[in-house]
Amino acid sequence: PGEDRLYVATMEDGTTIGSCGFLHQDDQCCELVRMITDDRYQGRGIGSRLLKFVLRECAVKGYRKIVLKTASFRRPACKLYESNNFRLTNINVDQYGILTFSQYECDLNDL
After folding, report:
1. pLDDT band at residue 96 under the 50/70/90 scheme
2. Is 30 in contact with 58 (CB distance < 8 Å)?
3. Which one, 7, 9, 51, 95, has least CB within 10 Å?
4. In this structure, are residues 20 and 35 in contact, taking their beta carbons and an 8 Å threshold?
């Protein structure tokens, strides 16, 4: 690992319908970023395939762990991460007790 970063997208008829990527954090860890699938294409496995591709690339580059933050109300995204070996590590709550975001991590050696 070094100052690695990668962004991937899937397209249909010239329009981006899903994307995700990772950013280098340190020699052992990177962060999943920009994970999104167009609402019209959700539930078709596009996000899952993109995520698996990025996880493999991170492992090949020598990272041992990948982390992410997501809005706590994004339950479909949380389920996607949990079904791909991510574990919840922290839930942030604002000063009014409202859930703001969840943090997850995945051990890339477990893939």
Report:
1. very high
2. yes
3. 95
4. yes
Say which amino acid occupies 101. F
The C-alpha atoms of residue 9 and residue 15 are separated, in whole angstroms, by: 10
Q: Concatenated DSSP letters for 53-78?
A: HHHHHHHHTT--EEEEEEETT-HHHH
Mean pLDDT of 86-96: 94
Residues, the chain: 111
Residue 2 reports pLDDT greater than 70 = no
Banded pLDDT at 9 (limits 50, 70, 90)? very high
Helix (H) or strand (E) holding 25: none
Prediction pTM value: 0.89
Rounded (10°) CA dihedral 100, 46, 86, 52: -140
Residue recorded with tokens 């990272």? 63
Residue 101: Cβ-neighbour burial (10 angstroms; 0-12, 13-18, 19+): middle
Query: According to the model, what pLDDT value does residue 1 have?
Result: 53
Extended beta strands in 29-93, E state: 29-37, 65-71, 87-93
